[in-house]
Amino acid sequence: MMDRTRLIGLQLAVALGIILLWHVATTTPDIFNVKTAQFFFSTPADIAARVVKMFSTGIIWRHLGITLVEAALAFVIGAGLGLAFGFWFARKPFLAAIADPFLKAMNSLPRVVLAPIFALWFGNGIASKVALGVTLVFFIVFFNVFQGVREVNQNILSNARMLGMNERQLLRHVYWPAALAWVFSSLHTSVGFAVVGAVVGEYLGSSAGLGYLIHESEGVFDTTGVFAGMFILSVFVILVDVLVTVLERHLLNWQPEQSSALAKA
Amino acid sequence: MAQMRRRLSLVETSTVVQPAVSLTGVSIAYGLKSGGRYEAVAPVNLSVEEGEFTAIVGPTGCGKSTLLNAAAGLIRPASGIVSIFGQKLDGLNQQAGYLFQADALMPWKTVLENASIGLEVAGMQKGEARAKASALLARVGLKTFLDRYPHQLSGGQRKRVALAQMLVRNPKILLMDEPFGPLDAQTRLIMGELLIDLWQADRKAAMFVTHDLDEAIALADRVIIMSAGPSATIIGDFKVDIPRPRDVAEVRADRRFHDLHSAIWSVLRDEVRKAYGQFAAEPEGAGA
């Protein structure tokens, strides 16, 4: 317990140190040219003021909401498709063998290059961002489930068979829970990628969302706006991640808690 | 009159009690990655009668587990016939319960769910299945652990769940593959006692694979000795005439136990040495 307070204290000290250094370097005339320094790096005080203003005027909520909706849709659709195809292909190795080179080719493509084509197909609204997020989430969940179902513990499988399960019951009591476990264990990564898809999509062309906000500020060399947007984005991602951790604890309560054991170590 | 007698004898042969498990000329072989074949078990004959607890002992890698898996229908023999109560086995042995050496509980199901699943998939009402399972779990000493998940239990407790999971379906044959191998010595003794307690209630046919000769003699009515592989075969068949009920721990101090132990060990010893000598030359993919 003592160690934990000390750790948090040190972490706070590092954060304050960085902010202080930033503040001094951008506001003390004797170090750099203040105007140039602030043009490139803004100042912590300005950024804080901008964040406060964004929330007090309430303009941020719409952007946050849109990014959240895009990320959520991308996750649900991507994970759903990944689960379905992963499960299906794992049970039908012949199909998987046919699809293998195509999946690999698609997965090797940097997803950013798809953004313009999705904008062309689905327009500048939410749909094109969701599509981009789906292409990211799908492959993570797909490969996890595919591997997970194919490598279901042989002892558990033999035992379930000896207990009298038929194919349908094996699917329900063994393969399906095993597949779900793999979806949940990749939850952090896939939710993270859903947010990345949404923000990158917004950044490359849209009229709302956190990515749009950052891009818009960049367009007018508003460094304060860019940093404020980045700050809100990282807090947003951390909050989503905390939510995922809570969800995970509920869904995977049958598994030993690896993550917390690691954190304690 | 002669006709009458013939008919009578026909009736007699058809009502003759069939062995629970009968292996006739069963051999097991694998194709090797490097090409060629590896014969793990040479053709063997073995039958296990109803109510008989048979232990199979042999050096590591002799194929005793493989033979058990053939009786379970988990693997197909390269030759020979496996019969269960006189019926040729095709596919899985539905009359048998199987206790695995490794953990085979479903980690996503609770203790109670694991124990009752065998009844539920057989079509029994959930409530009834759970009631039966929890009664059995109480008998194996897990009354207060019904809602735990397997990872929250000790190795011995998980074995108890597996035992309940196997027994709840009331199988006619029990197949056990070194079930207490991974447990510590004290827990093994206690699990052996529990197993014999439960088994004694209705004496099913049992095949119990182990590498522990003490365990085999303490638990079984009959001890089968297998030679070292490849082409392992049965080289000894001993009757354990120590009366039941036995105290699995105390019986080891019995004179008959000692006599049997030295008689069996004299057969087994050479095979164990042979098995160790062979380890260096063992072909790949030829596990037990």
Could you explain how this protein is built, in words?
- The complex is a heterodimer of chains A (265) and B (288).
- Chain A has 265 residues and is mainly α.
- Chain A has helices at 2-27, 34-41, 44-57, 59-91, 93-108, 114-122, 126-150, 154-162, 167-185, 187-204, 210-219, 223-251, 258-264.
- Chain A contains 13 helices and no strands.
- In chain A, helix 3 (44-57) crosses helix 12 (223-251), helix 6 crosses helix 7 (126-150) and helix 11 (210-219) runs antiparallel to helix 12.
- Mean pLDDT of chain A is 89; it is low at 259-265.
- Chain B is an alpha/beta fold and 288 residues long.
- Chain B is built from 8 helices and 10 strands.
- The chains are: A mainly alpha (265), B alpha/beta (288).
- Chain A binds chain B through residues 153, 155-156, 158-166, 169, 173-174, 177-178, 181, 253-256, and chain B through 72, 74, 92-94, 96-98, 100, 102-110, 117-118, 121-122, 149-151, 162, 165, 169.
Please sum up the structure shown:
By secondary structure, chain A is mainly alpha-helical.
Task: Give the integer mean of the pLDDT values of chain B.
Answer: 87
The CATH architecture of the largest domain in chain B can be given as 3-Layer(aba) Sandwich
Share of helical residues of chain A: over 70%
The interface involving the most residues is between: A-B, 22 and 28 residues
* Shape descriptor of chain B: globular
Q: N- to C-terminal separation of chain A?
A: 13 Å
The biggest sheet of chain A amounts to:
none
Strand order of the largest sheet of chain B: 6-7-8-3-9-10
Number of domains of chain B: 2
